[in-house]
Design a protein that fits this description.
The chain is an all-alpha fold. Helix content is about 55%, strand content about 0%.
């Protein structure tokens, strides 16, 4: 079983094959489902694995939008978006 889990975590084994392997070892369908879900949670990246950014919320939002390829932003000045518009005006087009 240890080898089976290692192969799954190393992505040498698909989720389906992992479940089939567990079933072949005598695990019930419920146990297989639970174990697959637990291992999937263990594989999920942690919150600390993200990118650390500095700046105001508006500056970070603009950087994120630019990274996503957004070229146009629409809004009105009456919606409380002034910090976003200020950051947009202060940043040069890259």
């Amino acid at each position: 079983m240890r080898d089976l889990i290692k192969r799954f975590l190393d992505q040498d084994l698909s989720r389906r094959d992992f479940a089939k392997g567990l079933a072949a070892l005598g695990f019930s369908a419920t146990a297989v489902e639970s174990l697959v879900a637990s291992v999937a949670v263990a594989q999920a990246p942690s919150a600390t694995a993200g990118v650390r950014m500095q700046g105001t919320g508006a500056e970070i939002l603009l950087a994120t939008l630019r990274a996503a390829g957004v070229r146009n932003i629409f809004g009105t000045t009456a919606t409380g978006m002034s910090p976003l518009f200020d950051a947009l005006a202060l940043q040069s087009e890259t």
